[in-house]
Design goal:
single chain; 371 residues; mainly alpha; globular
C-alpha cells in the first residue's frame, strides 16, 4: 500500500505542471475516478479542509490522501513523494542558475503543456462542481463566491463567507423545528512582524520559511509578497531580480509552487540551504493536516458545521474556476495552443484519456509546432 502511494505521488509530482488547481485535478482523476480510493464527496470535504489551513493546498491534499489510505505512514510517504521530484528539478535549475547566471530555456515545452493543464482542470471542475452544487442554494453560493473572488476579495474571505452563508441557512432551518447548537469555527489570523537586518545563516533561513509556511494563505503571488518582504526588504539576502527568477522557477517546474523556497535556499546556501528552506516551508503542512484531518468527519456529522463545509467546498470550486479562467488567458495564445486545449478536453471528457500521457504529449507538441 505504501509503495503504491509512493509510485502515485512520485508520478504526480513529476507530471504536475500548472499549479495547485491542476495538481488537485490530477489527484481527483487518479484517486477518485481511476482507483476509487475515496468518494468524490470525501475528496471535496478534504479539499475544503485544506482551504481552512495555511500552506500549499495541493501538497496538503496529497498528505490527506496518504493519511486516508495508510494512516500516519501514508501521510509522510504521500507528502514527501509529491515534493521530492520538484525538489530535485528545482535544485538542478538552481545549480544551472548559480553556475551560468541564467535559467534553462523551457518556453517551447511549456507552450504545449499549459493548454493540456487547462483541459485537465476543466475536467476536474466539471466533476467536482456537479458534486459540490447539489442544490440551487449551493449553486447560488458558488456564483456569489465567484463574483466576490473576481472583484478581488481575499481567497480566505471568499471561502469562509461561503461556509458561513450556508451554515446560517442550515442553522435557521434547524431552529424552526428544535434548538440547534451554535456553529463555531476558528478563523486563522497571523501577522508578520518586522525584523531588523539579519546576517544570513541556515537557522534564520529555516525560521523565515517555517513562518511563511505557517501563516500563508492564497496563491503563489501571495508567496511572492511574503518572500519580498522577508528576504529582499528586511534582510537584503536577495535582489529583486533574483526573487523574480526564483518565483519563475517555482511556476514553470512541476510539483508544488512552494518549491520556490528550494531555489532560494540553494542560491543562498547551496544544497544544505535548499534542504533547510524546503523543510521549513513544507513542515507546517504536515502538522496542520495531521491535526485537522480527524476533525473532518465530526464536522460532517453536525448539520450546521456540515453546511459550513459544503459552503467551503463551493467557495473552493469557485476559486478554482476563476484561477482556470486566468490561466487559460495565458495558456491559449494562438490557434495551435487552442487546438491542443480542445483536443485534450475531448480526449479527457469523451474518452477518459489519462493525463499521465497527455501532459508529455502536449510538451512534445509545443517543442515542434511552428510559432
Amino acid at each position: 500500500m505504501l509503495s503504491e502511494l509512493a509510485r502515485l505521488f512520485l508520478k504526480l509530482g513529476t507530471l504536475g505542471f500548472g499549479g495547485p488547481a491542476a495538481h488537485i485535478a490530477l489527484m481527483e482523476d487518479e484517486v477518485v475516478r481511476r482507483r476509487g480510493w475515496m468518494t468524490r464527496e470525501r475528496f471535496l470535504d478534504l479539499l475544503g479542509a485544506t482551504n481552512l489551513i495555511p500552506g500549499p493546498n495541493s501538497t496538503e491534499m496529497a498528505i490527506h490522501v496518504g493519511h486516508e489510505r495508510a494512516g500516519w505512514r501514508g501521510l509522510l510517504v504521500a507528502g514527501t513523494c509529491f515534493i521530492l521530484p520538484a525538489f530535485a528539478i528545482v535544485v538542478a535549475c538552481a545549480w544551472a542558475y548559480t553556475r551560468y547566471g541564467t535559467l534553462p530555456a523551457t518556453e517551447g515545452l511549456l507552450r504545449g503543456v499549459k493548454p493540456v493543464i487547462i483541459a485537465i482542470v476543466l475536467q476536474a471542475l466539471w466533476s467536482l462542481g456537479r458534486t459540490a452544487t447539489r442544490t440551487r442554494g449551493h449553486a447560488a453560493t458558488g456564483l456569489l463566491s465567484l463574483a466576490a473572488a473576481a472583484a478581488g476579495v481575499h481567497e480566505l474571505a471568499v471561502i469562509l463567507g461561503a461556509g458561513a452563508l450556508l451554515a446560517m441557512v442550515a442553522w435557521a432551518r434547524a431552529a424552526r423545528g428544535r434548538a440547534s447548537g451554535i456553529l463555531a469555527m476558528p478563523v486563522w489570523a497571523a501577522a508578520s512582524t518586522a525584523a531588523g537586518t539579519v546576517p544570513f545563516g541556515l537557522v534564520p533561513l529555516f525560521l523565515v520559511f517555517l513562518k511563511i509556511g505557517s501563516v500563508l494563505f492564497g496563491s503563489g503571488y501571495v508567496l511572492l509578497a511574503f518572500l519580498r518582504a522577508d528576504l529582499v526588504v528586511r534582510r537584503g539576502w536577495l535582489s529583486e531580480s533574483q526573487l523574480l527568477d526564483a518565483v519563475a522557477v517555482g511556476q514553470v517546474t512541476p510539483g508544488p509552487v512552494f518549491t520556490t523556497a528550494t531555489f532560494v535556499g540553494y542560491v543562498l546556501g547551496g544544497l544544505r540551504g535548499a534542504v533547510v528552506a524546503t523543510v521549513g516551508i513544507f513542515l507546517p503542512a504536515f502538522v496542520f493536516v495531521a491535526l485537522s484531518g480527524p476533525l473532518v468527519p465530526r464536522i460532517r456529522r453536525s448539520p450546521a458545521a456540515g453546511a459550513f463545509l459544503d459552503g467551503v467546498n463551493v467557495g473552493s470550486i469557485a476559486l478554482m474556476a476563476l484561477v482556470t479562467a486566468q490561466l487559460a488567458r495565458a495558456a491559449i495564445v494562438d490557434p495551435w495552443t487552442g487546438a491542443i486545449a480542445g483536443a485534450s478536453a475531448l480526449l479527457l471528457l469523451r474518452f477518459r484519456a489519462s493525463p499521465a500521457w497527455l501532459v508529455p504529449a502536449g510538451g512534445l507538441l509545443g517543442l515542434v509546432l511552428p510559432r
